[in-house]
Amino acid sequence: MKMENLTGAAKLDIPFYQAAGDEVAVFEHAWKNRLPLLIKGPTGCGKTRFVAHMAARLGLPLHTVACHDDLTAADLVGRHLIGDGRTVWCDGPLTRAVREGGICYLDEVVEARKDTTVVLHPLADDRRILPIDRTGELLEAPPSFMLVVSYNPGYQNLLKGMKPSTRQRFVSVRFDFPRAEQEEAILIGETACPPDLARRLVTIAGALRALKDRDLEEAASTRLLIYAALLIKDGMDPVAACRVGIVESLTDDAEVAEALMEVVSATFGR
Predict the structure, then answer these.
(1) What UniProt keywords apply to this chain's record, in alphabetical order (predicted)?
(2) What pTM was computed for the model?
């Protein structure tokens, strides 16, 4: 389905997303060819929003899972639950996505326990099957089903990395923070803030991102810029909004925070 063919009402239901490159075409080609997709990029650069946008664009149900250290294969596939004196099988989000022919999106997949990859492998190759050992079912994914996973390469270490045997089952696309003019368009599209404010916030982000790996563990994300823009648009002082919306979310070090605030103050002429 192409955006040009969507009705005005349908477009309103699609989450806003400003494409930075050919990622929309890559997603559509992968889906049409029944290929799983791996998205890698820094925190807050638009990975989750992109998947939500594409699911709505294609008219598919979306099941999103925020992966964590305690996430197991059973959390994805399902488990038996006891209720009203009987045992009932309850599908997990991965199983529901397969049954519905939707998209299952595993956010920060490397955070999940290693046994989850055993479940993903047969869905992420040409078999496209989901064995459910506890019920004896063998589900074949319908043509519309798509598996999408993401992670932040900056958080990887020897214990939390994606194995080559898993990585090479996916079509992969790399995300990064958008170019200045694109990021300004995102802020305006998300918050309806004035163009001058968008430009100032993007200028601040550029200066703060230059400090990553020196004074900051993580770069200022587009998400944080949106938070600041919303606060300012609601009447909050711009410098104060940038402190709570951007700076304090980047560091716990008081001296570093004050150094970052100097950049903010200079940008707003304080």
Answers:
(1) ATP-binding, Nucleotide-binding
(2) 0.87
